[in-house]
Structures are given as structure tokens and as C-alpha cells.
Amino acid sequence: MDLRGLFKRPANELEKGGRTPAEATAADTFEVKRECPDCGRKIAEIDLPEMYYVCTCGHHFRMNARQRIDHICDEGSFTEMFSELETKDIINFPGYEKKLREARLSSGEEEAVICGTATVLGHKCAMFVMESLFMMGSMGTVVGERVTRLFEYATENGLPVVGFTVSGGARMQEGILSLMQMAKTSGAVKLHSDAGNFYLTVLTDPTTGGVTASFAMLGDVIMAEPGATVGFAGARVIEQTIRKKLPQGFQTAEFLLEHGFIDLITPRSEQKRVISTLLSMHEKKNGGDKA
Amino acid sequence: MSANTPYDKVMLARAKGRATAAEYISRIFTDFIELHGDRHFADDTAIVGGVAYLGDMPVTVISMEKGRDTKAKIYRNFGAPNPEGYNKALRLMRQAEKFSRPVVCFVDTAGAFCGLGAEERGQGRAIAQNLAEMITLKTPIVSVFIGEGGSGGALALACADEVWMMENAIYSVISPEGCASILWKDSKKVRAAAQSLRLTAQDMKKLQVAEKVIPEKGTFDACCRTMAKDLRAAFTARMALPKDELVRQRYERFRKYGAQIVPEDF
Ligand SMILES: [Zn+2]
Fold this sequence. Notes:
The complex is a heterodimer.
Chain A: H1 13-16, E1 33-35, E2 42-44, H2 65-72, E3 79-81, H3 96-107, E4 113-120, E5 123-130, H4 141-156, E6 161-167, H5 175-194, E7 199-207, H6 209-212, E8 221-224, H7 235-242, H8 253-258, E9 264-265, H9 268-281
Parallel strand pairs in A: 5-6, 6-7, 7-8, 8-9
Antiparallel strand pairs in A: 1-2, 3-4, 4-5
Helix pairs in contact in A: 4-5
Chain B: H1 6-14, H2 21-28, E1 30-34, E2 47-54, E3 57-64, H3 70-75, H4 83-98, E4 103-109, H5 116-120, H6 123-135, E5 141-149, H7 151-155, E6 162-166, H8 176-183, H9 190-197, H10 201-206, E7 212-214, H11 220-239, H12 243-255
Parallel strand pairs in B: 3-4, 4-5, 5-6, 6-7
Antiparallel strand pairs in B: 1-2, 2-3
The structure holds zinc ion.
Zinc ion binds at residues 36, 38-39, 41, 55, 57, 59 of chain A.
């Protein structure tokens, strides 16, 4: 439902820069603001969707998975798959059940990735979108299984895969089985690739650890959002290892582009068009055979 | 010697004086010839690779080498590979595939190196590439964990047909220290973390992550003789398989790690 028409904000609110919480009125509960870390501008939450969660200065705020699907896919074209897979506390890890309950509440999702099929400006693809609000997009067995099944489905049906990554890495609470998901997903990506199918990854903020070291970096084309943090090791761990502060801009999308590890940086406003063009260029003739 | 707690095993896996890969290689194989370099950037001294005879069978050997004394440890970067190490390993694996040689990997690392240069040269991409390529490599692979198996850095040499673990080796998604500090913000909870992570060789067997746990008893020489015999048997059986079947089985080996593995006693 679009709430923008229902809760109209005063036109001058942005210029005033918002009030302090102490002065907050009832109207402000509908006027949650986000402050841009780059330019300091405060933007009303309800205005963010139509701005694709991008500040006028170009800063890309994080976006949740459903918002991203709405933004990229043709309206009503996304059909979710594999949502029936249920996360279990396999190794009986202290506090995991509670963490899962909290993650489900805060994200409204059952796991840290959503998979399905969709069209992007008319071009069909299999798609996965990771969710940072669910345990920071960490990969356990269900995330690995959903992504693997999606690639297997895409391989069977000769579909390209478009994947949006956001992840803190492998999920500690499922122990070694989380690590095994790196191998499992990478294997599924490889079989999809060997069958001549196209895989596009879109790295969003932040993509790190075991996801970077598996399916995130295996795309035929690797796109990233401006300013996204992308790396293997966490910044703090590196600083502890080298006993130095990290240089400005280290592990950003721009840093990866400069070092030759990604193909392009595409702002959100351009993504739908660029993704659909790439899908179009890799469309298979005669369903399944290499063009 | 039998260790009691998982944390004792962590200490044993890291213990000073524990045999490093070089000592296994010199006892298990003959005529080992080291092959250096990734052909792009450098030769990573944390990873030692080459060709050797296993009996009369030529094999490719790739190992993580921690080094024994302080000087050697520094030279080997404490067994923490940089991207060029993983790239070298992949080069040697592809070479093994070309000449239909089986691959033996010895895993012993706290993890892939977390440095500035490692990130600049694509540590994540290097590991990802090894995972994807190993799963479909058309020659048999056995990975033997001889000490520490630290996360993705270890897995990048362990997408194998079989994983064998020395009795006091460990394999974990994160170090117990890392787990304690990230999850519980308390470095003193490292023992609890070691327990909760299920990182022992025995846990790996239970979780079907390892096919074999190798007892650390008797002499090291005898243990290596047995391992040589077992490696030959494993390779002989797998060399007889059609290559597509070999790859299919390896894919299935990793495919099974889903929520359906529920060991009774965790
Ligand atoms: Zn801004």
C-alpha cells in the first residue's frame, strides 16, 4: 500500500532539517527521517522509496530485499521459490533459536535470501536477493540451499541468474555446515556457467566474508552499487593484522573497480535498464542452445 | 594422547612442534619436485606445491606450510595464504587435470591472510574461483587436514572427493577467538566457542564433512606409511570412474550439506 498520499508532510520540513526528538509530535511518528552519512541531509522515510533510497547527493542507503525486488522487477512478475525451506538449529548453538526469532521479527522474512523468477523490462531471469535485516545477510544452510536450488532450476531451464548480494559472511551459528554452503553454491554456479548460462551479480553494501569468497565473485558480469563495501576480511580484522589504519576508500566498490575485480559500478536509478540490456544481450536462441 | 575438550584439540592442532606439511610430504612421497609461482604476480611461500611419486603413481601435491621454527614461520607467513597462493594451487590443479594426475592437498592454516595486499589482489575472488573449479576438476582430489582448518582459506584447498582429518586437527567456519569476540564480545568465552562451533575431527565425521579420522598414535613414520597406502587405494578406485561420474559424485558430496543433516547427539 502506498502511504504517501495518506500522510502528507509539510512542504518545508526538509529545509528546516527536522526537529530534535524532544520536540517530536504525533505527526513525526509518520515522519521518521534518515540522515545521509555523506551530506548530512535528513530525508523523510516515506520519500525514500521513490528516490530508490538514494540521497540527492548520490549516497545509496541500504534497501531491503522486497524493496529491491519492487524496484528492479516488472510489476507483479516476481514469483518466489523455495520459501518453504526452514532454518533449524542443527548443531544446537547457544542462543541461535532466539537470534532467529529476532531476525524473523525485524526483517519480516524467514531467511536472509529471497529467490524466485521475474522479468526485468520483459526479460526473464532467475533472481536472488539477499536481506541484510536478517542476521546481516549471513549464509547458513538454508541460504545456501535456496541459492543452490535457484541455480539448479536456472540450469535446468536455461535461465540467466541475477543476484543481489549483501552479507556479513558465513553464519557462525551453523558452524562448519555454513562453510560448506560456500562450496555447494559455487559448485551450482559452476554447473550453470558450464551449461552456457549467464550470471550477473550486483554487489550491494556490504558484501563480505564467505559470500564474497563464493557466489558473489563468480558472476560473468559483476556490477556494484556506488560506495558499497565489498571485501573478504573485515576492516577491523585487517587493521589488527597489519597494525595500521586502513586507507580511505579501502574495500569500496570504487576500490574494486580500480583493482580490476568488478566490471562496473551502476547507480540504482540505472540498474533496471543496464540489467535488462545485459539480459537481452545474453538471451538464448532456440531455448537452451548457446546462441 | 587423548584430548578431552574441543578447546584442548584447538591447542593441539596449533601446538608448537606439531608436524607440518613438509614432514608429511617427505615421508609419504618420493621425488617431490616443488613447482613455484602463480604465473601472474608472485610465488606465495605459504603454499607449497609440486609433483611427486606416490609409490609408482605420479601425483600433484599442494600444501599449506606453517614452518617449524620462528624464521620459517615468518617466511611461510604462518601458513596464511595470499591470493597468489590460491592461484598457484589452482594452476597446479589444472595441470594435474591435464595430465590425469590425482591431487593431494594438505590443509593447515588459521585462515587466508587478512592483509591490505590480499584484499587488493582479490582474496575473495581467489578463494571463490578455487571452490568453483575444484568441484568440477576432472581428476581425483583428497584433502588431508593435519592441523588447523581455518574457514574459507582452508576450504579453498578442500573441495575434494574425500576429506581426511588427523585426530587432533580442527575445521571451523571461524576461529573460537573470533566467534567469542564477535558473538559474545568476550574473549574469555573462547572455550565455550570451541565447544559450540563443533570443530573437532570427530564432529566433522558426525556431520559428514570428513570421511576419515586418522588416529594420532604409534610413530609418525608408521602413520605416514598407512596414509600413503590409503591414498593409493582412494585414488586407484576414483581413477577407474568415468570423469563425469567422478565430478558428479564430488558435486553430490557438497550438495548434501543442507538442513537435512541432523546428527542425533548435538
Ligand atoms: Zn546525501
